[in-house]
Amino acid sequence: MKKTLLIAGALLALSASMATAGGVNLSWSNCGAFGLASVTSACTNNGLKGTLYGSAIAPAPIPLLNGQTGTVDLQTTAAALSAWWLMGAGGCRSTSFAVDMNFTAAPFDCADIWGGAASPGANYNANFGGPNRARLKATGAVASPVAADDVSEMYLWKMTILGQKTFGTGACVGCLDGACFVLNDQFLTQPLNSPGGDVHVNNPILRQHASWQASGASIPGGCPGGTPTKNATWGSVKSLYR
Fold this sequence. Notes:
With 242 residues, this protein is mainly beta. Helix content is 10%, strand content 36%. The chain has two helices and twelve strands.
């Protein structure tokens, strides 16, 4: 009986630790378990292709959350990024990658921490880490800090892949290439000298990777195995923000 109680107590302690550890999720169309792990497209029109949602549970309460940076690494099934995936400045589809932090419209399955008051920013760095890779960043901040608890999964950002130049005259080839996206680090900031300081979160709640097209899961090493590792050293994590 005593042994059973000890085991039960240990399991409860482990469960409590896991419940408060925080983490991130990456999904299409909605946050975490409410979204999709993969989407596909026939690439036969120029309509919107998909929106990735980055969400997180803070590992501890953040009383003065005032900004965030989500770092997502992309790898495609092609040997090099095709024209369709060149969504940065000067690329074939340079206006086809957008970041938003407004969650005042549906869906409402996770917490809207920003309340429509955040100013977002986007960065797309083609060939970061290899010829068939890219690094995507979703950044943003609010003028007035907000309080985040360590229980609620909160919407942080949306990355939208638009459909311009997918089909027809002037189309950029490569929409059918598979791709894997991995949320490698989520940075949550507070004002200077705030209690608890800034926070990095890079462990998954459910999943921190999502794929595009069915072949996206067949990236060498598997999705997310083919992308840079998530559990980096502090020095390498800091290098993301230099």
